């Protein structure tokens, strides 16, 4: 498949690495690809710089958002929540018409100190906002409830644990489910919550995720819905 | 122990039943005990009326909030979130000074239709609000992330799954932990998230809980934090 990833941060790199490993054709969009290419500052999460990462994953085509291909099978939003609308607009609304956008972003607001709060929640969500701003696109919210290493390597946490999907388009959710299965997610651990308004639920799980990170002293955990 | 329960709804009844079964002396507070005693309408969750329930659990002392005993070891807030402050105020602020209050309530707002939203969230929580309103009490938020049958019978969901605690007083959290262990919670499944501000996390989990209820078609599930 041809996959376009928006965002060159830790999440974008982790997803892109996995997609390359799976044999996909991967494009990565940045606000300023030329500037991003020279980023030599180490990422505090991964320990390597984007420039170093790009050398390892040289099959990735790094471009400005506007130059992401119009014929991608899937677009994956790995930007920070506050920059998501601008990033997708820079990619081009017409280009995204009819396309599946997997939205991994969370509406984290770091402006009020730590831990971050959400800049949209409760009666609305980032997933819904993206669906409103890009009404002809098929937004599927997913993977946003765990650290990115688990997103692409679910078996690093033993036993059953879950990934949640939200979206208005059933076929788009099926295609994202298929992609998740190729990543290593067991289909019985993929829970379809319903339409895009259920994004509120997964985005509002972030505050307890952040506190669990503190309480457990590790980000290597995931939510599992234990059932009778 | 002497245990006072605020609220006579499904959650209050379920907790009171368990506390009676465990041999505790149980008081139950209502806005109007006399009126509550004659409530013959069936509870849609349990299928029985409060009047019927009271006959079965005749050891429960039903009183007005103001008549709850001042020497209870633990007070348990099982009221609806929007009535919690008023209920605790009716019980009496002085009476509650220095006392442990286990807060199971959630700030659900049904006024905007279904599913409910939260009337306080993101930058504040009901747990924090109660701690501010009753500064001399020891609020411990807990058990609010699951249906009440699981609260008192965790083994009805097989395997490991979790209960989360939030509170400023370490000793109070220890006493609630001990109570939970007598109910059947394994101590390794009780996660202390930190101070009372971590209530935001557990209260904000409600929106996904409600959507999971719909998606799974059952409320007999609980959150489990799967770890590496």
Describe this structure as you would to a colleague.
The structure is a homodimer of 228-residue chains. Chain A has 228 residues and is an alpha/beta fold. Chain A is built from ten helices and eleven strands. In chain A, the strands form two sheets. Chain A has an eight-stranded mixed β-sheet with strand order 3-2-1-4-5-8-9-10, sandwiched between helices. In chain A, a hairpin with a 7-residue loop joins strand 6 and strand 7. The model of chain A has no long low-confidence stretch (mean pLDDT 97). The interface between A and B is large, with 42 and 42 residues.
Give a summary of the structure in a few sentences:
The structure is a homodimer. Chain A has about 230 residues and is of the alpha/beta class.
Keywords:
globular, 228 residues, homodimer, 8-stranded mixed β-sheet, 21% strand, alpha/beta
How many alpha or pi helices of chain A?
10
> What oligomerization state is this entry in?
homodimer
Sketch the major β-sheet of chain A: 8 strands, mixed
Query: What is the first-to-last residue Cα distance of chain A?
Result: 38 Å
Greatest interface by residues involved = A-B, 42 and 42 residues
Sketch the topology of chain A as an H/E string, one letter per element: EHEHHEEHHEEEHEHEHEHHE
Strand order of the largest sheet of chain A: 3-2-1-4-5-8-9-10
Q: Roughly what percent helix of chain A? A: 25-40%
User: Rg of chain A to the nearest angstrom?
Assistant: 17 Å
